[in-house]
């Protein structure tokens, strides 16, 4: 009897333990299900981004370089004769015309030399004229057999010698008159004069630099172009390159010019080639030595892939964009870029027209992760505004 009671108690204990175990399993299963549901609810949605379709349109490619303005004509004014400066006739930095008087060198010694040479030339001419008359008389006497042939020959030779002496004396007179004229130092070109480097009362010779004059009606913009620009515009003589220039205080490139010079070889060390454009300067606003931003284009529009520059990211030395695939996932895509034209970046390789790329919210995208694209036009201002809106939205979240 006691054995039966003990067996029945053991069965009841076992049943209680099994019931407790089942209840615990149920509780644990319920907790696991709750945790899985909470995890699913906590998973963040794909980040919102601005995306635009890659477009292809005719673009006249341009390239920008740094350069300097140079004068077309630069003249150092030096005296041709020595002497004391007796007058300075210009204001420093003034515009002068060709032939304008700049300096006067004491002309008195040169005037005296010119007068002496003139007198000597006159005397030599008088002797030559007398010899000519004597030769004419000798010709008549020779016809009448009144003189010997030898005497006639001597008079003919004397006449030639005196004619040569007269011409030499006349040449010396002309040289003296030139030296006298050189005492008036004039501007050889139209342009702007510098200051007087040597002032009144100083003794000068031909080695001295009195001042300088630079032309300003036209001006050069010299720069070093790259190999691609040379192949696009420098080597194509059948096309006229379009050159525009802007100064440091100007927006854009308001000064139009013409490519005037391309060097005959490229520098193998730097891969650059010397180029020069010429610009009209009617208002004399452009001065030699100014820094210039030079834009060079072929002037011929060709189909090019263009994107918003905000869509471009940098991975060390490589440029990339993020393409939104058909499955809504982000794809890392390296690209080769060209210049910026009308606010849009030219893409030389890596993209095709019609592909969808991220133009706003690029910092929240991971390659291979899904995104929520919001389609916007491929426009610089609109994409910038949309990118700012998405950034504000992300900050609020």
UniProtKB/TrEMBL annotation:
InterPro entries: MdtA-like_b-barrel, MdtA-like_BSH, MdtA-like_C, MdtA-like_HH, RND_pump_MFP. It comes from the Bacteria. Residues 305-364 form the Multidrug resistance protein MdtA-like C-terminal permuted SH3 domain. SUPFAM superfamilies: HlyD-like secretion proteins (SSF111369). The keyword Glycoprotein does not apply. Residues 121-183 form the Multidrug resistance protein MdtA-like alpha-helical hairpin domain. The keyword Signal applies. Transmembrane segments: none annotated. Residues 1-29 form the signal peptide. It is found in: Cell envelope. Keywords: Signal. Pfam families: Beta-barrel_RND, BSH_RND, HH_MFP_RND, RND-MFP_C. Residues 239-297 form the Multidrug resistance protein MdtA-like beta-barrel domain. Residues 73-214 form the Multidrug resistance protein MdtA-like barrel-sandwich hybrid domain. Belongs to the membrane fusion protein (MFP) (TC 8.A.1) family. This is Efflux RND transporter periplasmic adaptor subunit.
